[in-house]
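batch_manifest entry 22 of 60
target: NADH-quinone oxidoreductase subunit H
source organism: Streptomyces globisporus
requested by: lab member K.T.
priority: normal
notes from requester: please return tokens only, no post-processing; we will run our own comparison against the previous entry in this batch. if the run fails, retry once and flag.
--- input ---
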Amino acid sequence: MTGLAALTTAPEGAVLAAEDLSMFGTDPWWLVVVKAVFCFAFLMVTVLFSIVWERKVVAWMQLRIGPNRNGPWGMLQSLADGIKLMLKEDLIVKRADKAVYILAPIVAAIPAFMAIAVIPFGPADNQVSIFGHRTTMQLTDLPIAMLYILAVASVGIYGLVLAGWSSGSTYPLLGGLRSCAQMISYEIAMGAAFASVFLYSGSMSTSAIVEAQADRWFVVLLPVSFIIYIITMVGETNRAPFDMPESEGDLVGGFNTEYSSIKFAMFMLAEYVNMVTVSAVSVTLFLGGWRAPYPVSTFWEGANQGWWPMLWFVLKVQLLLFFFIWLRGTLPRVRYDQLMKLGWKVLIPVSVVWLMLVATVRALRNEGYDFSRIVLYVGAAVIAVLLISFVVDMFRDRKNRTEAEAAGPEPAFDPMAGGFPVPPLPGQTLPPVPRRTPRRERELVVSGGPDTQSDGNASDGKEAGGV
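--- output ---
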């Protein structure tokens, strides 16, 4: 109810304020180049650090040493790995579609870098000096910046799908198809989580969304949207426990199985750059962006001035990157049917219902209703929906039981009917596991006795030699 109360008590200006983007697009060309190079360097340095940090944190979780050879404390291990991959032999599969095979890693990597262009590293009204020229700490901004981020994130999946198809092999094709299905499943819930932020902030501009969090971060106002986005960003980046497209247990390596050298490194680079990008988007939408945390901002007036906002932004991004690492070292990989069930049957319905709730609360607030009346209306609607669903489920279960009794007992489920083990479908149960014979009831086999024979009397010998 805290988030609902905050939604209803927010000022009207938070919804009606129009973004002011007049400070963008006025920089000279050389300053635009400098800022673009900085965004690229920020992503590359963060990726190099994240790889080493992930290996060290997972090693710490698993009581291992981790990288400690290249550079001080092993901090140059990721750079050494990149050089090693570039020096390896670059192979092209004989059956591959060469043009698409070479283009796929590029298509996967380039869109990963593009989303950072509209992420604010600092306030738009607090310009910093770069070579004597005052400019904002953001490359550019758009009235539809979040739609731009969704668009470039959707393009990146083409690289994985094309890589799996162009390799001319079965396992990469399955990995590419898994990537496509996973992206479709989780992109819908992600878009609904974004829409809740749009409704509350009244803008799709990233700088305006951060400005709308001046009084309270959206992680407090929209906790359900934040949780949904955290889950979907793990699925979008194909990270554990949702790393089904490159599951080495059943796909050897997934869509990148037939790649080597620099092309394989580009897929790895795209994955980690996407991790940084989705973390930056999460910070911008829900964690106050470049704003200092609550305890710091209360007693230090200059916490959001100068270059300090970039420090808070980087710390928040690193916190979410640690969340990625923590998930990988903690949770096992889920089954593919569980992954699809979570996306289609849980995340999408919850995100749509939450979006309708947020829209209803904002509409009632704009009409001038007070908090108690809004809670009454929303609570009554939720209770009515729960009652209707309960009645529908009760009648459906009764109908299913009647049909099952009329049809008679179902045939037993055989997981090996197709020649290989398959999981049971909904409504099917696995046969009971045969219990092992207790040790005291096991038969004794006498060396040299009839049980050692290879003819048909072996079974008789077992029965006769049993004690």
